[in-house]
Structures are given as C-alpha cells and as structure tokens.
C-alpha cells in the first residue's frame, strides 16, 4: 500500500463525502486536534468518467487521495458505523516562543564569547595615520558571526552594531569610535590572515578535548557555491578557472566520537576523493591524541590507509568494498576476512561513523549548504568559519551538560556569560501528546 492509498483510506473513514450536484461531490471538512478546519474540496466527473479535484495536489491525468477516497465511497458506500475522528499520535511541542527566543539569544551570546576568547591572543595590527584598520581578531569574529546568523549584509549590520556596543570587538576600546562597515567585513573573507586565525582557533577548540577523545570518525561533504556555470555554457576543464571547473567545494572533517568536536578539517574542490585527505586529517592530530580507532565509509578502503593504520596501531573501522576478494594474501583480503568475523564491539565502532555525517548535517542545517562567497579564497574562509561556529555551539552544550568540563581559553567575562546558559539553553520545551489549545495567544514567559 502506497502512502497515497493509505491517506485515501484515512480520508474515506474520517471525512464526510456529500453529493452536491450531478457528477459533483464535496469532501466536508472535519474537526482536527491540530487545525481548526481543513479546506473543503470539490470533485467533479466529466463525460469521459475522469475525476477532477480542486485540491492543490491534483493535476490532470493523475489522481489524489480525495479522488481515491471518492472511488471507495462510490464502490463501498459510506463506512459502516459512520465517519470516525481518527486519533493522531504526533508529538506536539508547546509553543513557548518567548522562552525559546530567550534561549536562542543566550546561545548566540555564549557562542560569540567563546569565539572572542579563542581570538584574544591574535596580535594587533599596527595603526598609522587616518582611520585605524580592522583588527584581525575583530575580522575573524565578524566573519564567524556572519555565517552563524545567515543574514544578508544589511540585516547583519544590526548584529555588528550590537556586538560593537557590547564590547565584543577590540576596536571598541581603541581609536575607532564606529562599528566596522559592511565592506570591511566582506573583504575579511578574502584576507589570508583571517583564514589563518580561524584555523588556529579551530586547533584551540580541539585542545579542550585532547584528554577525552581516542576514537574518531572521518567523512567528507560537498557544499554548493554560486560559481555553477549555466547548463548550456561550455566550460573547458583545462582553460576554465577553478571556481567554474569545480562548481562545489568539499569539507573533509575528522570528529571525536565522544564530544562530537571537529579536531581537523581540510577544504578541497568538490571532485576530490575522500581517501586523498586521510593523511592530512590524521597526521596533524596523531601527536596530540591517542588514536585507538577511526571509523569511515568505503571511500577510505585502500591499501595505503589500511597499512598506515596497521603501522600505527589504529583499528580501521572501514567496511570492505563488495568486489574485494578474500582468497589472496593482500591486506585488503585480510581486512575483508576480519571484517566478516568482527566482534560486537567492533560493529559498534563502525556505527560511530554517523557522528561525522551528523556534524556535516549540523553545519548545513544551522547555517547553510550554499556558500555565498565567489572567490575560492573566500569560500575556504567561509567554510572554515562554519566549522568553527559548529565547534563553538558544541562547546556550549558540553559546558552546560558536564560541570566538570573546562574550556581552557575562556576568560572571566566569557565564563560569566556561559553560567546562565546552564539554566536556559538546554531546558527547552519537551514534546507532549496533549493538543494545543485553540487560539493564537503566546504563552507567558517562564
């Protein structure tokens, strides 16, 4: 039974069908626990016996659940026992928007404070005559704030002014009496010093979980760029610039499975294979973390990666490819034989691979999977900033959930902001099966 057929049976039993004329029927609305009324749809039949429905989902030559429900009504008659109000077990969330908005504001401020603390060690730029330049720490913070808010330039200027007034920017205590303008923030995406500062901050956030992580998950995900050529535009692979030759950009990450913090990231063009970045992800962290296992998908199944893991005592939770033979003496065949006989604990290790996929999902859902920057240098900076913001959000939750968790680079001001988050960020409305009372009045603030 398809989804449409199932909905047709629900409509047949739960909504009254009444003849309103020759070859015309109306599906009366019914009371709903979640909506006050459903719209009334009219179905008519032409001389050829073809049904037409007024619902948005109907198109000529196809059908819809209302037409199929009418066909059942004409064939079987009204349902025995009358029409029934069918129960719905969907979870309902209390619409406590004031409390949710307050929690979002506290989360945003906590993320800004973590980012400000991560950038506080950046050396200031030298100032000369005229208006002082935008400091590197301010530029990196504003870049991260731009990708976090996902607002356009004009709308994000209000956030910049608020950050300026709250003293989050170094410029606030310097000679510049005004908040940075939009053009300076846009140029910061192309500044190599800002990109380097964001990379250093990513390394700083990874230091907070060095003693907690030993099992990691690696994966790559593509992000769309605005450089995609037109379908009828001929682009030569040799003569076209990288922005047109590779319309997508790819982020390769390695994530700790316990804290879900990204400890390494590499940015490449969209056509780059995942396995080529394995060493660039693992080698920088091997001296700082005691790596016991790495979970990844079949894209990382290669002789070089398996030998590397075997040489350094790392368990490779990587499934073999289907066409891998098991009868020879190669390392691929040996891994395939061991994979078919793995223990329950080793099976659970491979299940941790989804944590790296979930990290990409968080980045795309909280921010965006479509980059705004057009130059490749700005796209790399934007994607690194999105990864850093995701780490900062995760650090807030770790700080709130675990009282023993410490963020070493926080100062006193950042800690004073994070303390209220313990009471507000995670204590959001929980789902309930109780229906919402009718009306549009907002509930009182908690």
Identify low-pLDDT runs. 32-37, 85-92, 230-235, 428-446
Kindly state the mean pLDDT as a whole number?
A: 80
The major sheet is characterized as: 5 strands, mixed
Put simply, the count of helices is 15
Question: What is the overall shape?
Answer: globular
Give, in spatial order, the strands making up the sheet with the most strands. Answer: 7-6-5-8-9
Structural class computed from helices and strand pairing: alpha+beta
**From the alpha-carbon coordinates, what is the Rg to the nearest angstrom?**
28 Å
Order of helices and strands: HEEEEHHHHHHEHEEHEHEHHHHH
What percentage of residues falls in helices of 4 or more residues?
A: 40-55%
Ends distance:
46 Å
Strand fraction band? 5-15%
Tell me the total number of β-strands: 9
Can you put this structure into words, describing what you see?
By secondary structure, the protein is of the alpha+beta class. The longest helix is centred in the last third of the chain and has 26 residues, at about 375-400. About 40% of the residues lie in helices and about 10% in strands. Helix 4 packs across helix 5 (about 155-165). A hairpin with a 2-residue loop joins strand 1 and strand 2. The strands form two sheets. The chain has a five-stranded mixed sheet with strand order 7-6-5-8-9, sandwiched between helices. A four-stranded antiparallel sheet has the order 1-2-3-4, with helices on one face.
Question: What's the layout of helices and strands?
Answer:
Elements: H1 3-14, E1 17-21, E2 24-27, E3 41-45, E4 51-53, H2 65-76, H3 97-119, H4 136-149, H5 153-165, H6 182-188, H7 192-207, E5 215-224, H8 242-245, E6 248-256, E7 262-269, H9 278-286, E8 293-295, H10 303-311, E9 315-317, H11 331-340, H12 344-351, H13 354-366, H14 376-401, H15 412-424
Parallel strand pairs: 5-8, 8-9
Antiparallel strand pairs: 1-2, 2-3, 3-4, 5-6, 6-7
């Amino acid at each position: 039974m398809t989804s449409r057929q199932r909905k047709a049976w629900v409509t047949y039993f739960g909504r009254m069908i009444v003849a309103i004329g020759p070859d015309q029927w109306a599906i009366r609305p019914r009371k709903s626990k979640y909506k006050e009324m459903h719209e009334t749809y009219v179905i008519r039949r032409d001389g050829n016996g073809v049904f037409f429905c007024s619902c948005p989902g109907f198109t000529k030559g196809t059908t819809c659940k209302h037409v199929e429900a009418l066909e059942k009504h004409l064939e079987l008659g009204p349902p025995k026992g009358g029409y029934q109000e069918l129960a719905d077990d969907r979870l309902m969330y209390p619409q406590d928007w004031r409390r949710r908005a307050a929690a979002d504001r506290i989360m945003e401020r906590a993320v800004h404070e973590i980012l400000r603390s991560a950038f506080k060690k950046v050396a200031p730029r030298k100032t000369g005559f005229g208006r002082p330049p935008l400091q590197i720490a301010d530029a990196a913070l504003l870049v991260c704030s731009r990708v976090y808010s996902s607002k356009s330039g004009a709308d994000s200027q209000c956030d910049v002014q608020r950050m300026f007034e709250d003293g989050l920017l170094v410029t606030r205590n310097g000679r510049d009496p005004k908040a940075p303008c939009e053009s300076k923030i846009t140029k910061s995406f192309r500044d190599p010093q800002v990109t380097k500062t964001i990379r250093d901050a990513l390394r700083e956030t990874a230091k907070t979980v060095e003693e907690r992580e030993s099992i990691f998950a690696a994966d790559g995900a593509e992000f769309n760029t605005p450089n995609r050529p037109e379908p009828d535009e001929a682009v030569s692979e040799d003569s076209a610039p990288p922005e047109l030759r590779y319309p997508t950009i790819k982020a390769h990450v390695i994530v700790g499975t316990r804290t879900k913090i990204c400890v390494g990231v590499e940015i490449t063009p969209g056509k780059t294979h995942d396995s080529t970045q394995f060493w660039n992800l693992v080698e920088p962290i091997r001296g700082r973390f005691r790596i016991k296992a790495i979970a990844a998908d079949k894209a990382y199944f290669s002789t070089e990666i398996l030998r590397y893991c075997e040489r350094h005592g790392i368990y490779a939770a990587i499934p073999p490819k289907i066409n891998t033979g098991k009868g020879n003496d190669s390392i691929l065949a040996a891994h395939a034989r061991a994979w078919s006989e793995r223990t329950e604990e080793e099976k659970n290790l491979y299940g941790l691979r989804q944590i790296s996929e979930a990290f990409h999902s968080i980045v795309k859902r909280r921010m965006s999977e479509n980059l705004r920057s057009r130059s490749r240098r700005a796209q790399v900076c934007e994607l690194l900033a999105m990864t850093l913001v995701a780490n900062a959000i995760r650090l807030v939750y770790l700080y709130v959930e675990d009282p023993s968790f410490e963020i070493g680079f926080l100062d006193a001001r950042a800690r004073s902001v994070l303390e209220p988050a313990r009471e507000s960020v995670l204590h959001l409305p929980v789902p309930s099966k109780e229906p919402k009372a009718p009306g549009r009045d907002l509930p009182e603030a908690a």
